[in-house]
Design brief:
single chain, Rossmann fold, Quinone Oxidoreductase, Chain A, domain 1, 368 residues, seven-stranded mixed sheet, alpha/beta, six-stranded parallel sheet
């Protein structure tokens, strides 16, 4: 079938909206008519050419939500008409990682996905007869996409898809990190470094877990004001003095939980040191640049602090994303507030301009 999509033709250049061909789903695959797609920093990272694993031409985008339009042979958990959120982090349920219960990093399609192909090593996208690789297994800057069933989360049909699409990456990363990766305890003190989409999610998740005190750190006064809306009890301007301020505010003890959501290694270092001696847990969520190193003084670990990472916030997509949608529908999770701009596909390059200007939290592309 013919579809319209935004194609990355070469690095550091605007995307080009054009017509492509999309083949029918094969074994274990599903075709989704996309209704909304969030524009994430990961898309910009690849688009810029800085990502060493990036390639072109390709259709970027991974924060998608839509409606199942067709299913291939062997698909058992989804049917035409189901509403779904796309998952760059699949959940097959049967690989050694999924069965372990210790991680959300599924191995089943990881290798081919990283190369830009669907599980059988081929692409469904093409242009003038030439195959075009997929992005993060999703390629959601398009009217339709074909993806493996194990990379789609079935959600309640009542949810606004423009809000639900944010759970495909950014919002879930922060929320799930607090709920299920760090498992914030009621009455605890948390510090969140960076209050973009991921950081705001960590604030919302910490509040849901019953944290008593939530300290938000950011360079933007506007974003700190928004952090208060999502549950921050205290706000601090980011900078070299932020760590000392946090220690002063916690009687020199530090926080039970800290979350880093900036991707800056210097801020990661602050987040580690801000964790409480004895049991403080630092969860690193930001993605640092290639080759950058996080240096930690061993004494900080010997005296009981712990450090962990959290890809997708530790969420198991097909299990946890529907639960987050339920919280949204129950009024316990404000996803609508994350959506600050809505644009059509033809204006997708404007979304990157807004991102680089730090205008708003998330721009969502809406399809007709």
């Amino acid at each position: 079938m013919k579809i319209r999509a935004a194609v990355l033709e070469e690095f550091a250049q605007p995307l080009v909206v054009q017509e492509l061909d999309l083949a029918d789903p094969r074994e274990g695959e599903v075709r989704v008519k996309l209704h909304a797609c969030g524009v994430c920093h990961t898309d910009l990272y690849t688009m810029s050419g800085v990502d060493p694993s990036g390639y072109f031409p390709t259709v970027l985008g991974h924060e998608g939500a839509g409606v199942v339009e067709a299913v291939g042979p062997g698909v058992v958990g989804l049917a035409v008409g189901d509403h779904v959120v796309t998952l760059f982090s699949p959940e097959c349920g049967v690989c050694s990682h999924c069965e372990s219960g210790k991680t959300n990093i599924c191995l089943s399609i990881r290798e081919q996905q990283g190369l830009g192909y669907l599980p059988d090593g081929t692409a469904r996208l093409s242009r003038d007869g030439e195959p075009m690789r997929h992005f993060m297994g999703c390629s959601t800057f398009a009217e339709y996409t074909v993806m493996p069933e194990i990379a789609l989360a079935k959600i309640d049909k009542r949810a606004d898809l423009a809000a639900a699409c944010l759970l495909a990456c950014g919002a879930t990363t922060g929320i799930a990190a607090a709920l299920w990766k760090a498992e914030v305890e009621p009455g605890s003190t948390c510090a969140i470094f960076g209050t973009g989409m991921v950081g705001l999610g960590a604030i919302a998740g910490s509040k849901l877990r019953g944290a008593e005190r939530i300290l938000a750190v950011d360079l933007s006064e506007e974003r700190l004001e928004l952090a208060r809306k999502y549950g921050a009890t205290d706000t601090l301007l980011a900078g070299p003095d932020a760590l000392d301020q946090i220690l002063e505010m916690t009687d020199g003890m530090g926080c039970d939980y800290t979350f880093e959501a900036t991707g800056r290694v210097d801020v990661m270092g602050q987040a580690v040191e801000a964790a409480r001696m004895g049991w403080g847990l630092c969860t690193v969520l930001g993605v640092a640049g290639r080759g950058e190193e996080l240096k930690i003084i061993p004494r900080l670990l010997i005296t009981g602090r712990r450090v962990q990472g959290g890809s997708f916030g530790g969420a198991r997509g097909r299990t946890h994303v529907p639960q987050l949608v339920d919280l949204y529908l129950e009024g316990k999770l404000d996803l609508d507030g994350f959506v600050t701009h809505r644009l059509p596909l033809d204006d997708i390059n404007r979304s990157f301009e807004l991102m680089e200007a730090q205008d708003g939290i998330r721009t969502v592309i809406e399809f007709e």
